[in-house]
């Protein structure tokens, strides 16, 4: 049932007419989605929209991004309807909180919501004596003190949202503690959502005439036949979505490392350095938008530095192996969230580490081959070069090597223009032999 204030405290209900702003929340909830939804709510209020509909299909997302969206909904002067759609969609984890925070919660048939337990996926914390003591009413809701704190915080948060909008607070808590889930019809029967609608048009028909209290003002929705205005992501939001993909951040970081290594190997051209710096800056921008585990970040940076040092100053694999290990461990720890989609893929980590190990092995092999080669410098580099005789002589004369004239001696008479090969160098005198 709706949570209504006493009649004397409510102003006279006004008729809320105008167009309906439709926002699309599709996919994991991250910084880009959060910015898009908040911007859409502000834009709808500024442009005179009578209603905001958030079409949602999400597996969940980042806690900070979810809370930013909820704050935008709670502060909105325009009614916000969250509609789990199309059929087959879901409002899992963070989506359940957003649904509870909305002024009207709606679902399409064959959709689901729930499973809102905040489970920390990452490096396990060390057990303490207090962690082993759990009361009977806690059950399986957390096995460590940190997990219990997270669950208790989530329970209080979703209960507050449920009580604010007059929805089933008991089931909301079970979605957090027991990962409970409901279908659309079950959610309607349990007073978790307000409407089950086939499509947007049917949703507007059912919303027509509904009374709401928005920031202390009573309004009556007039949505029958209201025009729909869809607000899509602009190119900046789409780019932000791409840049906050942890796997892409990892790839950009590796391209940046390779670019700088190439620049150190072949200075002066600048292409590798420019590409490397741009990729590293883009990776850094994406990282600062995500919940980063700084211990993991430090290990990734250390791994990159060690692998770069191995490529520049081969150490027979010691630095390279250490860098690969640090890189793998840091990559697993890098993004501090329970949402799998925002974590770096382990197969990608292994693939990048393997590729880097192959490059380091090739570099080390080239280094060893160069080290075994006798060093030749200065005038000794002329040995083996091909030139021509500059005049006629039997034992001593002049030859032209790479455009320069040199004094030469030979054991076979030479004619002008004969091709000769340098066999030895004696001071500034070249020993040459005629090429037949």
Structure notes:
43% of the residues lie in helices and 18% in strands. It is α/β, with parallel strands linked by helices. It folds into 3 domains: 7-127 and 144-236, Alpha-Beta Complex (2-enoyl-CoA Hydratase, Chain A, domain 1), CATH 3.90.226; 244-372, no CATH class; 378-434, Nucleic acid-binding proteins (OB fold (Dihydrolipoamide Acetyltransferase, E2P), Beta Barrel), CATH 2.40.50.140. The strands form 4 sheets. Strands 9-6-4-3-2-12 form a 6-stranded parallel sheet, with helices on both faces. A 5-stranded mixed β-barrel has the order 13-14-15-17-16. Strand 3, helix 2 (63-74) and strand 4 (80-84) form a beta-alpha-beta unit. Helix 9 (246-265) packs antiparallel against helix 10. It is elongated and about 115 Å long.
């Amino acid at each position: 049932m709706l949570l209504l204030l006493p009649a004397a405290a409510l102003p006279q209900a006004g008729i809320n007419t105008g167009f309906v702003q439709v926002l699309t929340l599709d996919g994991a909830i991250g910084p880009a989605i959060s910015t898009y939804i908040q911007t859409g709510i502000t834009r709808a209020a500024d442009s005179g929209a009578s209603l905001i509909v958030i079409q949602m299909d999400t597996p969940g997302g980042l806690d900070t991004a979810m809370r930013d969206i909820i704050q935008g909904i709670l502060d909105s002067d325009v009614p916000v309807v969250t509609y789990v759609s199309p059929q087959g969609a879901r409002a899992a984890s963070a989506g359940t909180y957003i649904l509870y925070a909305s002024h009207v919660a709606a679902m399409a048939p064959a959709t689901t919501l729930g499973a809102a337990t905040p489970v920390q996926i990452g490096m396990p914390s060390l057990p303490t004596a207090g962690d082993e003591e759990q009361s009977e009413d806690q059950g399986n809701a957390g096995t460590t003190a940190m997990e219990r704190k997270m669950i208790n915080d989530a329970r209080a948060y979703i209960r507050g949202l449920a009580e604010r909008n007059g929805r089933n607070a008991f089931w909301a808590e079970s979605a957090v503690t027991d990962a409970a889930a409901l279908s659309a019809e079950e959610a309607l029967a349990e007073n978790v959502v307000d409407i089950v609608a086939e499509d947007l048009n049917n949703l507007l028909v059912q919303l027509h005439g509904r009374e709401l209290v928005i920031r202390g003002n009573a309004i009556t929705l007039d949505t029958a036949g209201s025009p729909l205005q869809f607000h899509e992501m602009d190119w900046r939001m789409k780019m932000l979505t791409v840049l906050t993909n942890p796997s892409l951040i990892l790839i950009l970081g590796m391209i940046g490392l390779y670019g700088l290594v190439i620049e150190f190997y072949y200075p002066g051209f600048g292409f590798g350095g420019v590409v490397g710096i741009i990729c590293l800056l883009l990776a850094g921008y994406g990282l600062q938008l995500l919940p980063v585990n700084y211990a993991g970040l430090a290990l990734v940076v250390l791994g990159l530095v060690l692998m770069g040092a191995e490529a520049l100053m081969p150490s027979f694999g010691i630095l390279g192996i250490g860098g690969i290990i640090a890189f793998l461990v840091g990559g697993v720890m890098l993004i501090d969230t329970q949402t799998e989609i925002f974590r770096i893929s382990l197969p990608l980590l292994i693939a990048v580490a393997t590729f880097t190990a192959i490059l380091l092995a090739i570099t080390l092999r080239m280094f060893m081959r160069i080290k075994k080669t006798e060093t030749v410098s200065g005038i000794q580099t002329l040995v083996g070069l091909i030139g021509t005789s500059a005049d006629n002589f039997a034992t001593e004369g002049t030859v032209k090597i790479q455009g320069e004239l040199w004094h030469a001696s030979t054991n076979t008479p030479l004619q002008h223009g004969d091709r000769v090969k340098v066999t030895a160098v004696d001071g500034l005198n070249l020993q040459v032999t005629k090429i037949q």
